Amino acid sequence: MTTRTSPISAAEHVDVLVVGAGLSGIGAGYHLQRHCPKKSYAILEGRDCIGGTWDLFRYPGIRSDSDMYTLGYSFRPWREAKAIADGASILNYVRDTARDYGIDQKIRFNHRVRRASWNSDQALWTVEAALPSGEIARFTCNFLFMCSGYYNYEAGYTPEFQGTERFQGRIVHPQKWTEAIDYAGKRVVVIGSGATAVTLVPELAKTAAHVTMLQRSPTYIVARPEEDAIANWLRRHFPAKFAYGVTRWKNVLLGMMFFNMCRRTPERMKQRLLQLVKKEIGDTCDVDRHFTPRYNPWDQRLCLVPNGDLFQALKQGKASVVTDHIETFTESGLQLRSGTELAADLIVTATGLNLQVLGNLALEVDGKPVDPPRTMSYKGMMYSDVPNLATAFGYTNASWTLKCDLTCEYVCRLLNHMDHHGYKQCTPRNDDPSITATPWIDFSSGYVQRSIEQFPKQGSKAPWRLYQNYALDLMNLRFAAVDDGVMRFSSPVAR
To answer: pLDDT digit string (tens) for 402-432?
Structure first.
């Protein structure tokens, strides 16, 4: 008789199993309690705390690059003065929401979900989660709701640089930042020009000797007031929920208008964005060289700098921008392709994140492995031929939570529809030969292009197409019929 090295516990059953206790997972818990009060649910979280991304990332200055009136939950008004909030405030908001609604009592921490198997005869998922002890916790559920995002929490992306072993200082990726990293009075080079880099540079510049943002190519950067004057006025004169709702719709509509203008008149919007940068930065540095991207606005996500803090650091001489390629790391810094040498005591590789599908979950349906790239995304949340499973993904051109809130509402509508009609299984199926598969996201950003082949495809038309449009999704997910002819319902009988 052999002994298992990783024993599996007896299965615990819930109606709905949610994976992830970050912004999306806590939102899912609220919606299930609100709209499906008779359903039992549990949330499995791989780490030991609530917050997801907002707890994981600890680098200096971490903040939202979306306003909190749209990044916040639809059901819980954001009451702080800052519209562009720091990471600690967002984390408190998520944790307070979990506590106030009792969602925190439904979370099983240190449960890292590894595999899920669907059995059509039983209309049941069997889910296995690894525990710190090495044991496997086992759950069964009727519906599996993945709210783990698409970042790999184990490690960020760092290119292969020549000579890193020669560098005498410290090299750190922002995803691995700790309080032990000392940058006061030191020469810092931040490699990258995305959202993380433009957040780090002005914050590090407050106490560092000097900070250099080293980029291969520029990014569109937009300055925006840290506080929303209209929102704060509304909150002073009206009830919080009303003020929050008005501000949320104001920001949604303005964001949609701006995105559509960028897509319809890209050259005009490009020139407008560059004019705003020149107004902010003056003659401090060469805008054409350092702030003029080769791509059109919203071909990649724009970077937001509250109160123009990055531009202020540049104007004050506390920071600088270099556009060049790295030839090699040296003992004292970096040698660039142009021949320039950058001295550094600390090098921060803000070079991006790694994406992963379904939290790297091994998925199978009736004994057959599911290969995500061979599936098609239904309404941006479910997968062709995969029953009773949904994922919460946010927008690339707007706040993450806008889409996740709608997704949670739809999942609840779907569950209630099934209960009302006595169905146990719902499966999106594509039987339309005219629908062609296209990439899941049409972004040219490096973090997307490195991983896009791992993700499900989207289709050429609804309901398989991702429109990245809140107004359309609102109509389709909140009001359109659940039984649309594409979603197939059934009630398997156990054999």
So the answer is: 999 999 999 999 999 999 999 999 999 999 9
Give the Å distances, CA to CA, from 19 to 69, 100, 151, 437. Answer: 25, 20, 14, 28
CATH code (residue 81): 3.50.50.60
Residue 464 CB partners (closer than 8 Å, separation 6+): 376, 377, 378, 384, 430, 435, 458
Return the percentage of the chain with pLDDT > 70, whole number.
Answer: 96
Residue 240, phi then psi, degrees to nearest 5: -55, -45
Structurally, the chain folds into a number of domains equal to 2
DSSP string, 421-486: HT--EEEE----TT--EE-S-----HHHHTTGGGSPBEESSTTS-----HHHHIIIIIIS-S--SS
Element (H, E) at 128: strand 124-130
Q: Which domain holds residue 99?
A: 12-154+356-490
pLDDT tens profile 249-287: 999 999 999 999 998 999 999 999 999 999 999 888 899
The C-alpha torsion from 160 through 165 and 168 to 171, rounded to 10°, is 40
* Final residue before a domain boundary, out of 324, 349, 374: 349
Segment 223-235, tens digit of pLDDT: 999 999 999 999 9
Q: Which residues contact 287 (CB under 8 A, 6 or more apart)?
A: 274, 277, 278, 281
